[in-house]
Design a protein that fits this description.
The protein has seven helices and three strands, in the order ααααβββααα. The longest helix is centred in the first third of the chain and has 24 residues. Strand 1 and strand 2 form a beta hairpin. The chain is elongated, with a radius of gyration of 27 Å. Strands 1-2-3 form a three-stranded antiparallel β-sheet, with no helix packed on it. It has about 220 residues and is mainly alpha-helical.
């Protein structure tokens, strides 16, 4: 009987360190949850940016800190930032209707807007004298898929831009942790919906700001 008491003490000492972290973990579980949500939001916006014209996204990323004064906005900063977001979103919409081809005379890549007739409307007028006219083909015909991609690119860019750290601090500063988590969940939902639609209806265009095709 005398030997059973030390064994009980040893068991209680061995169990004590296992119980302490459980109580402490319940108090600090909210911090990893917030970090996980923000990480998923950033991952979703990064994946969505791959489907947007690189020029418009790059222009926003470069100009946003200076236009928003790193989140310390005045009325003038808000107006400039709103114009920047609107201009970049419009570019995302319009550039979804562009395509490219390689000029057989010069070998240069030329860009133009797709049209209902199937002939590219070139954005540059500097064609060589020996260059043939822009191609007219069914693949350069404006379709409903182009309109869908334009609208989707417009909406996706707004979803990405409106949760930018500087834009949030400029237009709707948030102090509540729960509201910040809600805002972080917006691009996650937009990323899931956008990725699904982009995968279901892939674009075959190689326009301005997108990878150039082989032809």
């Amino acid at each position: 009987m005398a030997s059973s008491r030390p064994v009980g003490d040893a068991e209680s000492q061995a169990q004590a360190p296992l119980l302490a972290p459980n109580g402490g973990g319940a108090q600090t579980s909210s911090a990893p949850t917030t970090t996980t949500v923000v990480g998923r939001a950033l991952s979703s916006t990064a994946d969505l940016a791959k489907h947007l014209p690189t020029g418009a996204v790059l222009a926003f990323e470069v100009l946003s800190p200076s236009f928003t004064a790193d989140g310390s906005c005045t009325a003038a900063n808000r107006a400039l930032t709103a114009c920047l977001i609107a201009a970049c979103a419009l570019c995302c919409f319009l550039l979804s209707f562009t395509d490219s081809y390689r000029d057989p005379a010069t070998g240069a890549v030329r860009y133009g807007f797709v049209t209902p007739s199937g002939r590219l409307l070139l954005v540059d007028g500097g064609a060589a004298a020996s260059s043939p006219p822009p191609p007219r083909d069914a693949r350069y015909r404006l379709t409903a898929r182009d309109v869908m991609h334009g609208v989707l690119s417009f909406v996706v860019f707004l979803a990405v831009a409106m949760v930018d750290r500087n834009v949030v601090a400029c237009f709707y500063p948030v102090e509540s942790a729960s509201v910040r988590q809600l805002l972080a969940a917006v691009p996650v939902a937009a990323g899931a919906a956008g990725s699904f639609l982009f995968a279901m209806f892939p674009s075959t265009r190689h326009g301005i700001g997108f990878p150039v095709g082989s032809t």
